[in-house]
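chain below, 160 aa
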Amino acid sequence: QTVLQGIILLPLRAICIAFILLLAWLSASIATFCQPGRGYLPLKGWRRRMIQTALSSLTRTAYFVMGFHVKVKGKVASLREAPIFVAAPHSSFFDAIVCALTGMPSIVSRAENLSTPVFGTILSSLQPVAVSRQDPDSRKNTVAEITRRALSRGQWPQVI
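prediction:
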């Protein structure tokens, strides 16, 4: 009986996750379409709210479909309280759970990730701080950009 459930549930879950991923890509594409100051200016208004609500909800739903039930204890620090939010060890796809639970903050990511099909569009909608591994000044530039965003008095989302 367990094998039969797996044979039925696996394709069903895969189809649901693919559909959720398609919706996330569509939401990210709409929110960033004709975006002024692409990457250099923070998203504002409906674009920012759309990313925060749609992507957060879709990510939570995807994890639920995969069988993860996350329970939050306590209160997430607001942008004013903590402009920089640290999550470690960045070693798995569980980082996306933290992103979804904290309202889809900006993240620090490899620049190469932005060119990945589908995921690159979703990632770029989060307005990441892109780290280039080929640039020798990348570490210094990344620290400067995180500092600039943290001191922006709430114009940029939290950085994780």
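The helical segments are 2-32, 45-66, 95-101, 119-125, 138-150. Residues 1-151 form one domain.
thats it, cya
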